Amino acid sequence: MQERAGIFSEPTEEMWMWEGNELIDSRGEVIAEVRTDLIYHGAERMLVESSPGPFRFRARATNANGDVFTLSQESRTVHRLKAECAGRKYTLERVSLWRKERRILTAEGQEAIRVRPLVSGRVEVISGKAGNTLPTLDAIFLTWVCVLVDSPVRRPRLA
Predict the structure, then answer these.
(1) What is the pLDDT of residue 50?
(2) What is the mean pLDDT of the chain?
(3) Distance CA 67, CA 51 (A)
(4) What's phi and psi for 74, nearest 5 deg?
(5) Rounded to an integer, what distance in angstroms lies between the CA atom of residue 120 and that of residue 19?
(6) How far apart are CA 6 and CA 30, in angstroms?
(7) Would you report the helix, strand and coil content of the chain in percent, each value rounded to 5?
(8) Superkingdom of this entry's organism (predicted)?
(9) Reduced to 3 states, what is the DSSP secondary structure of residue 77?
(10) Do the beta carbons of residue 71 and residue 79 sit within 8 Å?
(11) Given a cut of 60, is residue 12 above it in pLDDT?
(12) What letter would DSSP give residue 53?
């Protein structure tokens, strides 16, 4: 059975926050952190590779179990992205042409997460109606790639 995201256990509007390279829950505890292309979540490690090229954005992560997480841009813009996390499919779409806020939708079209970059560089992660169905690693990977694509602050590569 897949681990589900802790704050997403009930359909409430609780929030996580990416602050720099750390994902912090509503209690102020660090859920995950990114260091030199590795996402750390407890004992779990995911190697993340991304290519923010001028015409296409792609990202891929692999964990120790061999699970593969991918994100790809399927059109000329990053307005709508497709992701697959260990066989589970998602769509990441901006809510407006004028904003970088994104909805992460399940394969069934239900909103699992809303990701909102702030001018400060922090990125809000708000649970949606289907947030309780989302495995934790999926939530971490999907929100981190949103940070890479949409955040106004460039992320340092920390060792």
Answers:
(1) 87
(2) 86
(3) 20
(4) -105, 0
(5) 9
(6) 12
(7) 15, 45, 40
(8) Bacteria
(9) coil
(10) no
(11) no
(12) -
| DSSP per position, 87-107 | TEEEEEEES-TT---EEEEET
pLDDT > 90? residue 68: yes
And the tokens for 96?
A: 């407006």
The residues, any chain, with a CB within 8 Å of residue 35's CB and separated by 6 or more, are 21, 158, 159
Contact 138, 84 (CB under 8 A): no
Within a 13 Å sphere around the CA of 76, how many CA atoms are in the beta-carbon half? 0
CA–CA distances in Å: residue 51 to residues 20, 57, 87, 102, 106: 20, 6, 21, 20, 24
Nearest to 83 by CA among 106, 100, 67: 106
Which secondary structure element, helix H or strand E, spans residue 123, and what is its range? Answer: strand 123-127
In the predicted model, what is the mean pLDDT of residues 80-90?
Answer: 95
Residue type present at position 88: R
Q: Which two tokens stand for residue 104?
A: 């992460």
29: which 2 tokens?
């505890």
Asked if residue 93 lies in contact with residue 101, where contact means CB atoms within 8 angstroms, the answer is: no
Amino acid at 137: L
Q: How would you classify residue 81: left for phi > 0, otherwise alpha for psi between -120 and 50, otherwise beta?
A: beta
- What pLDDT is stored for residue 5 in this prediction? 52
Average pLDDT on 122-150 reads 91
